[in-house]
Amino acid sequence: MAEDRLARYRAIRDFEATPEPAGAPGPPPEGSSRFVVQEHHATSLHWDLRLERGGTLASWAVPKGIPVDPATNHLAVRTEDHPLEYLVFAGEIPGGNYGAGRMGVWDHGSYELVKWTEREVMVVLHGERVSGRYVLFRTGGTQWMIHRMDPPEDPGRQRFPGWGAFAPMLAEPGPMPDAADLERYAFEVDWGGVRAFAHVEGGRIGVRVPGRDGEQIRLLPELRALGASLGATEVVLDGDLVVVGAGGRPDTARLADRLTPRSDAAARRLARAAPVTYLIVDVLWVEGRPLMDLAYDERRRRLEDLGLSGPAWQVPPSHPGEGPALAAAAAAQGLPGVIAKERASRYRAGPAGSAWISVRTSPPA
Ligand code: MN
């Protein structure tokens, strides 16, 4: 009975306090095979896959989302059946309630049933974002795995090649381009921070500081929310870490302290006392495709399309042609300079020659 299968769903919720549906009694629609994937920003971001079955929604919580590639299986934890009304539920579950956090519909559609047993569920999903044959198989208790059986929907999609494939393009010191050349360049403030790459996949972020071993995200817990904000979108970002100090200027000593190895508890304490801001200036990879061969202007457009803005990350503006004005503004704020980036240039590791020029605001002391 569908009603019995909702007993646990109802037992752990207070429908006076949560906007979630209690579920209406009544016979299930016949021959209907709908599914929904919800993106659930709970304590830990996950995606909930729900398949209509016998009047309720069989549900799995998938921490890394629906896999796009048969090479990578994802953990899926069987959760309580949900009422059919949940197929369209989106909203904020208030703090203190079960599953508190924002829930949105990530995809929905219908599915074809291939096989359904206690240990194995095979379906063909027909959604807007995800289509193809998937199998869920039980590995023990509530633990299942979800595997994509079809090739990736995007045949050109590549797997993240690892940090070794990403090395910074480096601006070389030089003069402000001539007035006749200014329009060939876009200008960004040089914040004098520490260069850092970020890789986000399945809402999880890793941060790599070139020249240092390993990921630094353990030391920078305030950037985990950047990963969650990207949801299922996979990216590699390039930018500068800064700690904003007195007068709004980057404080290099406090930033160095933030990158000094310490315990997780101490890192969390420092994240509140001396928060970092990640100033994102480039995007090098999106959804399994490298972007390094695109021109700066095109990468910049792709970066702005991501709409990244949050408490600990920003995309500072880029100013085509406006080098002298930006340099004057940077000098007035005591910032180290501006970087001129040739708008037609590709992203190349190492010294950039005249493609990226570091223009100092004041002569070296
Ligand atoms: Mn959930």
Q: Cofactors and ligands present? A: manganese (II) ion
Strand neighbour order, sheet with most strands:
1-2-3-4-9-8-7-6
| Tally of DSSP β-strands | 22
Taking the sheet with the most strands, its summary is: 8 strands, antiparallel, barrel
The poorly predicted ranges are none
The CATH superfamily name of the largest domain is DNA ligase/mRNA capping enzyme
CATH fold call of the largest domain: D-amino Acid Aminotransferase, Chain A, domain 1
What proportion strand?
A: 35-45%
Overall average residue pLDDT: 94
Assigned CATH class of the largest domain: Alpha Beta
Number of domains: 2
Given the helix and strand composition, which structural class is it?
mainly beta
Taken from the alpha-carbon principal axes, the silhouette is elongated
CATH architecture of the largest domain: 2-Layer Sandwich
N-to-C SSE series? HHEEEEEEEEEEEEEEHEHHEEHEEHEEE
Determine the number of helices (DSSP H or I, runs of at least 4 residues).
Answer: 7
Helicity, as a percent range: 10-25%
Q: Over all CA atoms, what is the radius of gyration?
A: 24 Å
* Ends apart, CA distance between termini: 80 Å
